[in-house]
Amino acid sequence: MTNKLKQRENYPTLVIHSTDNSFGFGYRKNNTLESDELFIKKFDNDLCNNLINDLNKFISKENLQKINKLSVSIGPANFNASRLIVVLARTISQQINCPLDSFSSFEIMAKRIASKNNIFTNKKSFWIYKKLKRKGLIAGKYEICYEEKNSSDLFIRETVLPKVVKELGSKELTFEANYDDKEDLKELLNLANKNLLNSNLNSWRKVLPLYPISPIN
């Protein structure tokens, strides 16, 4: 590993995540898990008023200016929460001239779900789904992958972005979405760190909330 790569992996990282009824921030000062700081809060109808205030309490202006990587979850989750945290992330990215990338909520939880269900076969695929209030599902497809140089380094590739489907085939391997604020924030920090070298300063333009159906469903 080059010195330049080592230096970039030590860049401070900030992540923002939301679920159906909660949101959170994660901050990693360097590339060690011991440096992680997390903030998690449930919300009702007060997210719009509290989001920026809670961020200011979580991270100082000095540390925010030092952030060199920012990542945000884009859903599927509560539509308004996804929209608000994406707007916040894009704003921060522009203001401090920091790369921004995004991951679906299902991709963030996919490795945890695979590990819990002992899915370790290379190229093995499975679906993660969320039931809609009316009919159908929101579902995304994921594939087990390993780094060529390190067969023990498991990572997940999102092959189908979460979308509305009527049903999933009976022969498909499927798991219901299961949000875990703490674990998902940690995984988002990991994903942000691994994707650091692929980011650019204008990447915020492509980051949009993911919600395959109307907010009223």
Question: What does this molecule look like?
Answer:
By secondary structure, this protein is an alpha/beta fold. Helices cover 31% and strands 30% of the residues. It has six helices and nine strands. β4 (69-73), α4 (79-95) and β5 (100-103) form a beta-alpha-beta unit. The longest helix is centred in the middle third of the chain and has 17 residues, at 79-95. The chain is globular, with a radius of gyration of 17 Å. Residues 1-8 have low confidence and may be disordered.
Question: What's a quick, concise take on this entry?
Answer:
The protein is 31% helix and 30% strand. The protein is built from 6 helices and 9 strands; from the N terminus they run H-E-E-E-H-H-E-H-E-H-E-E-E-E-H.
Radius of gyration over all CA atoms, rounded: 17 Å
- Sketch the topology as an H/E string, one letter per element: HEEEHHEHEHEEEEH
Give the strand content.
25-35%
Q: Characterize the quaternary organization of these chains.
A: single chain
How helix-rich are the residues, as a percent range? 25-40%
Beta strands, count: 9
Question: How many H/I helical runs?
Answer: 6
Overall form: globular
The structural class is: alpha/beta
Main sheet strand line-up: 3-2-1-4-5
Span between termini:
48 Å
Uncertain runs are 1-8
Q: Determine the mean pLDDT.
A: 87
Name a few traits of the molecule.
217 residues; alpha/beta; four-stranded mixed beta sheet; globular; disordered N terminus
What topology does this entry show?
Elements: H1 3-9, E1 13-18, E2 22-28, E3 36-42, H2 47-58, H3 61-66, E4 69-73, H4 79-95, E5 100-103, H5 105-116, E6 125-131, E7 137-147, E8 150-165, E9 174-176, H6 181-194
Parallel strand pairs: 1-4, 4-5, 6-9
Antiparallel strand pairs: 1-2, 2-3, 6-7, 7-8
